[in-house]
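Subject: sequence -> structure tokens, single chain

Hey, anyone have a minute? Need the predicted structure for the following. Not urgent.
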Amino acid sequence: MHEGQGHQEYIVTSDPEAVARVRASLLRTLPVAAWAGVASAVVIVSAVALVLFALGHSASRLWVLVFAWPAAFLGYDARRRFADIRRLKRTWAATEVSPVAMRLSAEGLRCAIDSAPEPVFLPWSAITQVRVTGQGLSTVRVDLAPGMSAATPGVSGLEQPEARMRMRRTWNGGMRLCFTVYALRQPISEIDQALGHFSNGRIGIR
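Reply:
Had a minute. Here:
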């Protein structure tokens, strides 16, 4: 537990060096995936052009549409990927690697999503369950209470695109925030105790 500015909090930390390595790896591999989409779209367009040239006026427009829509989809997806990469570079250029993955306090849970400019804050009333699995690469799953969203009073950060990308719908129709923590430094049992302490025993790791 840590005391700061008159309130108590529990800080969950990760390994900054591991986070930096993951950032460097993603900045190398993400552009490759985006360019692969561009290359696939070009191949499809070239193939359609060759078919049209070979068949001339006898070519069916239906077949052209059948083969053209995958190229359009791949081109759109590549454009979106490049936009995400640019946003990611801007975010990481403006924010240093932080060792803090989560902060637990009497007010709620603050989660640091590495690709997001701002952390996500959830009051305890917005959370029904927390899961943490793995040690080297840990996955954190935070189940939200029914009806909770980015517009809920007290909730902040969920409106960010990076946070929305990590929202998943659960089997019972609820929403779940999923993110990763690299090289978790605190034991899961200790985090579980802190969750119970600050949520007045309502929330623990399941």
